[in-house]
Amino acid sequence: MAPPDREADEESVPPVSESEIGAAETRMRKSAAPGPDGVPARVLALVLHYLEPRLRGLFDASLVSGQFPDCWKEGKLVLLPKPGRPPQSVAAFRPIVLLNEAGKLFERVVAACIVQHLTRVGPDLSDAQFGFRAGRSTIDAILRLKAVASEAVASKGVLLAVSLDIANAFNSLPFGCITEALRFHGVPLYLRRLVADYLDGRSVLFVNQEGDVVRRPMSCGVPQGSVLGPLLWDIGYDWVLRGRLPPG
């Protein structure tokens, strides 16, 4: 399936508005743990009125240049234990990356721009995509499955359900899949350039067994704990839901 042939004029990058900053601020989790800079979300929210003009200028410059600030590409790795798993197993922990709140604020602005494009211009995400989408939940997915099952029973057909669990999902999505998917969905060039730079040069910090702080680069995947991560995951894997199964 060929992607739409649309390229955005680099000079037509819309400036970030006060309302966009305000909308992003309302979606901040004020109780979230801080990133490497140690600034909690509640503190940023308290001073955002004073920082808003400078942050808007920074966001505008980043969108025009296609460069996501390097200081916001660094995350602090935290391992959360999974219940019922042996602690000596690597699979017993869920990796979460704590990011700087100012960077996450910018991510919310960028994510809103991408979602707005998908819904107003498109192609939008597949109607079969329920994860990480506003106004949709697991209940909606179950109701859809129930409707399909009822239709199969009414037509005296056979219904088979296949469940797939993608191991280490967020961390395994190749960057190239994300950028190609953004292009397929016709996302404006300035946003694609920014996302490409957002994914490039990322790193995580963690404390090893000796108590030393270690920095490791990220070569694939989207950071768990990020704002853009779930949206990029949906976009990157949307082609799976668009695939046509053979009849019978």
Attribute tags:
Reverse transcriptase domain-containing protein, RT_dom, 248 residues, 4-stranded mixed β-sheet, globular, single chain, disordered N terminus, alpha+beta
Topology pattern, helix = H, strand = E: HHEEHHHHHEEH
Structural class label: alpha+beta
What is the percentage of strand-forming residues?
5-15%
* Gap from first CA to last CA: 23 Å
Oligomer: single chain
Compute the gyration radius: what is it?
Answer: 20 Å
Which overall shape is indicated by the principal axes computed on the Cα atoms? globular
Order of neighbouring strands in the sheet with most strands: 2-1-3-4
Sheet with the most strands, sense and barrel status: 4 strands, mixed
The average pLDDT value, as a whole number, equals 86
Helix content: 40-55%
Spans of 5+ residues with little confidence (pLDDT < 50)?
A: 1-6
Pfam families: RVT_1
Domain Reverse transcriptase: 61-248
InterPro entries: DNA/RNA_pol_sf, RT_dom
Region (Disordered): 1-36
How does the SSE layout of this entry go?
Elements: H1 18-26, H2 41-65, E1 74-81, E2 93-98, H3 101-120, H4 138-154, H5 169-172, H6 175-184, H7 189-199, E3 203-207, E4 213-217, H8 228-242
Parallel strand pairs: 1-3
Antiparallel strand pairs: 1-2, 3-4
Helix pairs in contact: 1-3, 2-7, 6-7, 6-8
Organism: Euphydryas editha
Region (Disordered): 1-36
Domain Reverse transcriptase: 61-248
Description:
45% of the residues lie in helices and 10% in strands. The chain has 248 residues and is an alpha+beta fold. A 4-stranded mixed β-sheet has the order 2-1-3-4, with no helix packed on it. Strand 3 and strand 4 (213-217) form a beta hairpin. Helix 1 (18-26) packs across helix 3 and helix 6 runs antiparallel to helix 7 (189-199).
